[in-house]
């Protein structure tokens, strides 16, 4: 029954993807941004489907079972905080700018150098996030359906690629609505079963009321707060979040969608941390993903089938969103030279966007086959963004300070510091660093978590100091016709009344962005 539910879910998603193709009508604007026609509830569903995936559910359950309720709850709390900040302070301004992608924003604020830097970092970081979802789905199909892990990864990546190639953003809309319906029934049913059936229980020190998990470093408080911080701020510069906000019908609708998504994320996902703590107490020394053990053990089969279907749909929807956003960035923000533009013109923007998805899918498959871990990959992706793009994005959005030199230097310093700690710290969010650790006597496990705050602080301070010292300030608006709309004429845009920005006067030579590892480990 569980194996059949997985197959049925995949089949439904494929049908919805092909059905949504009729809404594309051959237009790139419909394919990438759904024609900017989505209402606030639909955008809220899309935002929730972006943050509620296998990384944030299966990974969070394992964290709760191993480290306590607040270790697992930190993930949905951090993601909900991000949605709340997005709705209150970011979404309305971003939607009013009529842009199509996050790198297009950096192009307007920081010039071509900023666009390239943002594009490369965003694709690398979200390649890590995509790989985490492919890993979770591969393990799920191996565990429940007996399909070999490597074959499962290829199958699920292929399914997401196929229905995204056909339906684009409208495919995400239809599959997202299906996902939220199934997920609400499954997650609420699982929580009710736990509280009304076996009842809540937790090992000593790991429960909901054991607040030392938030106050004592020995109980993991620094790592838990670092998780909330990294997800809460890093997700503000998520390429798929930016794209979904830009698909909203109006700026006000984009703001309301962020707030609704924050509430929905807390209601659906935080109780799962309590379920996981109880499950760890019930299962004892179970080996494997904790949530999978519960679903094949004490949980009633109808609830288990619904939850598994929700996990499959959630991860495929997230992977689909990353395919879509990454291909759009490749076509409109990276390959902008004369020869590339001529080739895209001959091919057509819509076709080029579809072709660009294929190498993105291949890279995700390769990473997932080499690093079969979930959970931490989600936090790591946003951790790296906190150390690089978050400060320049927020300061340039809410002030007149937009300095290319400040962007470059702050990114190199923040990301460089984070990478130094990543290589020298023996653990990553509480688990052994088996990826890039260099044994040393300088940095121990006590630095784990603190490095997240330190790298983000260095990036923010450097950006402010260099920007203020150079007095490089630009108006807070965007021109009526941007470079993005010129490259993508099929994307409908309404001119925004704003003074034309002064040219960036302090361009620095285009540096090679700091290297970012496409791998991590699970906690």
Helix content: over 70%
**Which blocks of ≥5 consecutive residues have pLDDT under 50?**
472-523
Question: What structural class do you assign from the helix and strand content?
Answer: mainly alpha
- How many whole angstroms does the radius of gyration measure? 22 Å
Main sheet overview: 2 strands, antiparallel
Shape: globular
So how many helices? 20
Strand content range: under 5%
Strand order of the largest sheet: 1-2
Element order: H for helix, E for strand: HHHHHHHHHHHHHHHHHHEEHH
User: From the structure provided, what is the oligomeric state, counting identical versus distinct chains?
Assistant: single chain
Average pLDDT metric = 80
Brief rundown of the structure:
With 523 residues, the protein is mainly alpha-helical. The chain is built from 20 helices and 2 strands. The longest helix has 48 residues, at 149-196.
What does this entry look like structurally?
By secondary structure, the protein is mostly helical. It has 20 helices and two strands. The chain has a two-stranded antiparallel ribbon with strand order 1-2. Helix 3 (40-51) packs antiparallel against helix 10 (239-246). The radius of gyration is 22 Å and the shape is globular. Residues 472-523 have low confidence and may be disordered.
């Amino acid at each position: 029954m569980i194996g059949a539910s997985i197959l049925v879910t995949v089949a439904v998603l494929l049908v919805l993807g092909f059905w949504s193709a009729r809404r594309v009508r051959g237009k790139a604007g419909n394919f990438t941004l759904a024609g900017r026609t989505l209402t606030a509830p639909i955008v809220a569903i899309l935002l929730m489907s972006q943050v509620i995936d296998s990384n944030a559910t299966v990974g969070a359950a394992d964290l709760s079972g191993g480290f306590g309720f607040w270790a697992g709850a930190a993930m949905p709390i951090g993601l909900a905080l991000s949605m709340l900040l997005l709705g209150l302070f970011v979404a309305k301004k971003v939607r009013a700018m009529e842009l199509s992608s996050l790198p297009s924003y950096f192009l307007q604020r920081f010039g071509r150098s900023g666009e390239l830097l943002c594009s490369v970092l965003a694709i690398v970081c979200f390649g890590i996030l995509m790989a985490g979802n492919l890993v979770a789905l591969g393990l799920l199909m191996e565990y429940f359906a007996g399909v070999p892990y490597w074959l499962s990864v290829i199958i699920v990546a292929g399914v997401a690629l196929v229905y995204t190639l056909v339906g684009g953003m409208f495919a995400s809309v239809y599959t997202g609505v299906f996902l939220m319906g199934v997920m609400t029934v499954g997650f609420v049913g699982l929580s009710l079963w736990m509280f009304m059936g076996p009842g809540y229980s937790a090992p000593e020190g790991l429960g909901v009321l054991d607040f030392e998990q938030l106050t004592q470093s020995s109980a993991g408080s620094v790592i838990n707060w670092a998780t909330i911080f990294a997800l809460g701020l890093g997700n503000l510069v998520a390429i798929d979040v930016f794209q979904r906000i830009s698909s909203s019908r109006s700026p006000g609708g984009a703001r309301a969608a962020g707030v609704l998504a924050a509430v929905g994320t807390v209601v659906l996902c935080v109780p799962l941390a309590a379920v996981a703590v109880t499950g760890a107490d019930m299962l004892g020394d179970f080996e494997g993903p904790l949530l999978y053990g519960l679903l094949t053990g004490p949980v009633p089969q109808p609830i288990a089938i619904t939850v598994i279907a929700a996990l499959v749909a959630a991860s495929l929807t997230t992977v689909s969103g990353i395919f879509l956003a990454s291909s759009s960035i490749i076509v409109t923000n990276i390959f902008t030279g004369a020869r590339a533009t001529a080739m895209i013109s001959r091919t057509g923007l819509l076709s080029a966007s579809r072709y660009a998805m294929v190498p993105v899918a291949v890279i995700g498959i390769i990473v997932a086959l080499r690093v079969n871990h979930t959970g931490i990959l989600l936090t790591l992706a946003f951790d790296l963004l906190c150390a690089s793009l978050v400060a320049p994005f927020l300061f340039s959005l809410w002030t007149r300070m937009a300095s290319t030199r400040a962007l470059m230097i702050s990114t190199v310093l923040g990301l460089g510091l984070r990478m130094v700690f990543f290589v020298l710290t023996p653990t990553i969010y509480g688990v052994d660093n088996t990826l890039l650790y260099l044994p040393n006597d300088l940095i121990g496990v006590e630095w784990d978590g603190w490095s997240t705050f330190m790298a983000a602080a260095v990036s923010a301070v450097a950006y402010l100091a260099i920007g203020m010292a150079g007095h490089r300030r630009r108006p807070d608006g965007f021109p009526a016709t941007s470079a993005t709309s010129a490259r993508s004429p099929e994307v409908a845009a309404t001119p925004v009344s704003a003074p034309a920005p002064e040219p960036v006067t302090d361009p620095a030579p285009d540096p090679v962005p700091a290297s970012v590892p496409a791998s991590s480990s699970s906690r």
